[in-house]
Each structure stands twice: as structure tokens, then as C-alpha cells.
Write a structure and sequence with these properties.
Length: 182
């Protein structure tokens, strides 16, 4: 099984998780590919790691626009990379504001890979626009990995993050870290 995991910024606290994922997937006969955003030279503040941390680590450019409390992202080369790598599973962060993640929902149907989101599981003070967008966004994914420790109680009540926003029952996997799931 070939697993491709994408995130915009690989942070220092992600390194051990992805190295362990690589080890476990390869130990089981699979292949792990980590793809992360390439640091913009002008970027300051929360800047991601710019050196490889696993054997197959690909860096791609991404764009980010911020309007007030909204962040819109685009990873224009990610769909083409996925088409050339042909993974069985694609895992992305659950950012509803990523234009590329919406495109990948259609690509998953076309190419037949499992499309998975890994996310915190809670949107603080989401307004009605984000609520509606999230409702549609969740339907793109085959599975949801949620790493918030209170996710089980959130799933149980229909007004909360997942079920209140269109997530189908049985599609959410509660985990404190992704490694626990594997």
C-alpha cells in the first residue's frame, strides 16, 4: 500500500510522528511518501522545516491568502504529483480553506484512492459560512482522523463539529495521534 501524506507546514513537533509512520508502513510492506509545503523565503513566524525528515519527502510550493479570520490556501502542483505517484491513500490536513483539497475530492473518485483528513476536530466560533462550507467539505472524505481528545463527545451530539456538519456516522476515528491508529 502506498500512502501519501500532505501538510502545508512540517513543524518540529511532527517529525517523530512521520518517522514512526514511515517505519510502521514500510515494516508492513507499504510505502510512505511525505509531501510538505516549500518554505517561502520571505516567510516569518510559524515557519516549517525545510529539510527532509523521511526517505521519500517531497517539497512543493503552496500559496496562502489571509482575509481577516479566513485563510485560503492552494497547492497547485499537488494534484499532478498525486496523479504521477498513484497512491492508494492520500491524507491531508482538514483545512476547509484549501482550494486544492476540494479538487482532490474529485480526483479521488477518478483515480480510486482513499481520501482521508487528519484534523483537530473542533472549529472555534465557526460562523454560518464556515459551517456550510465544512458541511460540504466533510463529504469529500472517505475517513476522518481526529486528534482532539474531546472528539468522542463532540461526535455524540448532532449540533457539534462532525455530525452537525454532515459527517456520516462511522466515518470518524478518534485518535490522540495518527500513530495510535496504525
Amino acid at each position: 500500500m502506498r500512502v501519501l501524506f500532505y501538510l502545508d507546514r512540517l513543524m518540529h513537533y511532527h517529525v517523530a510522528t512521520f518517522q514512526e509512520l514511515e517505519r510502521r508502513i514500510e515494516e508492513g510492506g507499504g510505502e510512505f511518501i511525505l509531501v510538505s509545503g516549500k518554505k517561502n523565503e520571505a516567510e516569518t513566524g510559524r515557519v516549517g522545516i525545510s529539510e527532509s525528515v523521511v526517505r521519500q519527502h517531497i517539497f512543493i510550493p503552496y500559496k496562502e491568502w489571509i482575509w481577516g479570520t479566513y485563510t485560503v490556501r492552494s497547492q497547485p502542483s499537488l494534484p499532478h504529483l498525486i496523479e504521477s505517484v498513484t497512491p492508494d491513500v492520500v491524507i491531508v490536513m482538514g483545512h476547509v480553506g484549501s482550494l486544492t483539497y476540494w479538487r482532490l475530492g474529485k480526483l479521488a473518485k477518478k483515480l480510486g484512492f482513499k481520501y482521508v483528513t487528519w484534523q483537530c476536530g473542533y472549529e472555534y466560533n465557526a460562523g454560518s459560512l464556515k459551517h456550510e462550507l465544512t458541511k460540504r467539505f466533510f463529504r469529500l472524505f472517505d475517513h476522518h482522523l481526529a486528534y482532539n481528545t474531546t472528539i468522542v463527545s463532540m461526535v455524540a451530539f448532532s449540533g457539534h463539529m462532525f455530525l452537525g456538519r454532515g459527517l456520516r456516522q462511522g466515518r470518524c476515528i478518534s485518535t490522540s495521534t495518527l500513530v495510535v491508529l496504525l
